Amino acid sequence: MLTRRRLAATAALLPLAATCPALAQPAIDGPVTLVVPYTPGTGHDILARLLSPFLTARLGHPVVVDNRAGASGNIGSQAVARAAPDGRTLMLQGNAFVINPGLVAQLPYDPVASFTPIIELTTAELALVVQPDLPVRDLRELIAHARANPGKLDYASPGNGTPQHLSMALFGLTAGVELNHVPYRGSAPAVQDLIGRRIALMFLPVHTALPLAQAGQIRLLAVGGEHRAAAAPDLPTIAEAGLPMPPVNLWYGLLAPAGMPAELVARLNAECNAWLREPSTRAALQAQGMVAAGGTPQAFATLISGDLQRWAKVIREAKVSAD
Question: Which whole number is the average pLDDT over 249-263?
């Protein structure tokens, strides 16, 4: 009788073992491809290569970074949208993911319906900077100078439609100033022309801007985030400096194809949050100018939907085109 009771109790627990994380974790059955829709060496790529060894150890399968660059990230994104939602294909994306829909009339995927948000991984603060010969010392002086010289100040970005471009377009709309956009092929030539006094201003990641400011090559005016940057605590936010502009920064997150089972989403979200809590992870991110974000899949989905609407509005009002 005792043996039969034990067998009955064990049988009753089997369904729970299949669903309770404490008893059994949902498995990903095979190697994982982590698609980065941009070239090696970008922030997306660096972050993916920091994350992949941790996931490899925790998932029990190799997590291989696959750079599928082209068409402003659309080639790699399309490939992920078409993949099976079995956890074996993931994508590391950034702000451009929510900007492209406002620039491209017909994308080969739907940024919401084609993907499953897993987690916002990191953010990187942007600083509004000017070349040191510009006769402004703070944000109010910059706005006054731009209003007195409409259309005479050139600003740089790493390319048309980049987060830095759209952030400056939003600044111009909010401040009511007319600025000229000069797109470059990447950040390096843009920074060189800023240092060379051929460009008046731009948004730069804080960790890139700080050493240039310390060397006297540029001047920092404000940070674009909601809060002051830990690396530059004396630098005010744009809102603190007197302009009620929505916060702008860079963010990076992990997505999967649409239809990912909820238990796999929860597993990957938990593993990434655990990675972000590691002191070694935070140190590595700090070296790259990034700050750990984390959170729930729902919070990341809300960020994506909100930014899609925000940047589409900026693109319309600033008359930004894909060319």
Answer: 97
